[in-house]
What does this fold into?
Amino acid sequence: MVSIFLILFVAALSYALSNFIEYKVVAFLLLVTVSLIAMFFDIIPVLLAACLSAIVWNYFFIPPRFTFAIQSAENVILFAMYFVIAMVNAVLTYKIREIEKKANKKIEKENTLKLYDTLLNSLSHELRTPISTIIGATDTLQEDNNKLSEANRSELISEISKASIRLNRQVGNLLNMSRLESGFLKPKNDWCDINELIHDIVSQLKDILQSKPVEISIKDNLPLFKLDHGLLEQVLHNLIYNAALYIPKYAVITVRATVNKEHKLIIIVEDTGEGFPENEIEHVFDKFYRLKNSNTGGTGLGLSIVKGFVEAMNGTIYLENGEEYGAKFTIVIPAEIAHLNDIKNEN
Amino acid sequence: MKISSEILVIDDEPQIRRLLSIALESNDYKVKETANAHEGLTAAANHPPDMILLDLGLPDDSGHNVLEKLREWYTKPIIILSVQSSEEDIVKALDNGANDYLVKPFRTGELLARIRSLLRSSSSESENPIISVENIQIDLSLRIVKRNGELVKLTVTEYNLLALLVKNEGKVLTHQFLLRSVWGPSYIDQSQYLRVFIAQLRKKIEDDPNRPSHIITESGIGYRFV
It folds into this structure.
């Protein structure tokens, strides 16, 4: 439809100008239009447009005008040539597009393969390490002919325990990732006490945090927010866990929560560690991305889950380095709010 | 000490059953293992145990159905075992009469603590109107709450909420149950009230309201008084 309309439009334009331009020039104008159409439309409308342009050109422009008859032999050849060129032009342009599409698909496929490759690599490392620990430790314990010292025995058992907790965390990450990938992640919103949530996460992580103090600063009388506590909990859990993993000993993690003028929830997680290399900041939320010089384990899933979950809640997250040191994550989430004082007064 | 309590385990995973048996038997409980809904229901009927551990994912029937069938006649504690991230399942089971829940993978210490707490409360249906938990004392007949021997001033709603939690010490109470019992049926979706009043109560009875040791949050499910 659009292609026919375009041809007619250009033809009408040329017709209006037919006093100033020769009919041979009109042929070129129509050809250009057909080529343009071929770049954007499917093969059938393109061929249709090519035929139509030939007919229009013949009827309206080739003398004698307003008949399909052509007088001079030169014009017959011209018309035949026009017809063929328009068709070939249309088909060729379409073919080029097809090839381009195929090339794109191939690149996409290669990217997916690369993704799977990274996934398999990091998985086999992240899952196999704890599994080897468990198998190794249980073997040693089972073969033991009372040669193991009590200290070694309990160390092996505590290694098994640590490895299982690590496995459990990785499986949780993978499940979250596939929840995100499936595209069916719908937040279940309920009233949420941010203060309670943050303190709860910090106390859950106390084993990992150990010597790393977490400062919590929450605006007085912060209202309740109606959002998915499970998603937000996972987001903050991953951010604080990540910070605890990568910052040097005795660096401080600070978590702030406040509400802005547009009633959006703002949560900032920052630390006094070394921060992120400036040139890698834009990649840290990418799936499976790991900092070039990082040596500790990790699947590179943690932060991509953070970003995915924040976006599932219609929020935004960005990362910057602090002025002097450390990294600073800022999360902004729009949500319905309820003021504590209104509720208390109803009692 | 009296005869050890009998616990019936209904779970289709042999590894989990073995693990539970070892953990429970080494703590002087008698254990009976069953692998599916049918076996479990039969075993419970033939020889009613003191407590049932019920897995929600059974091969022949849903754990929810088993729970409902059991609750038609069985009044002693039932603990639900469930896999991760199924808050709705857990809330449904609790509302259908389960006394408590554990999410796999769980820690054995946690399991034993829950079992002890439930067996204690089911054996001693005490007439005593005064309940003491660590530094907190609640006199249900006089409606008085004391912390470290000092009177705590509570509003009517705060008291009702606290009393309900304390009467069900150790047991997790769902958001909906608390809202319905304290505020009334039309409030079951108004969880903001619950959040605010829990925060208020914590300020009055907890040593550190941000690290509560009495009113424990069960994320996405409810609260528990310990």
User: Anything to note?
Assistant: The CA atoms of residues 6 and 30 of chain B lie 5 Å apart.
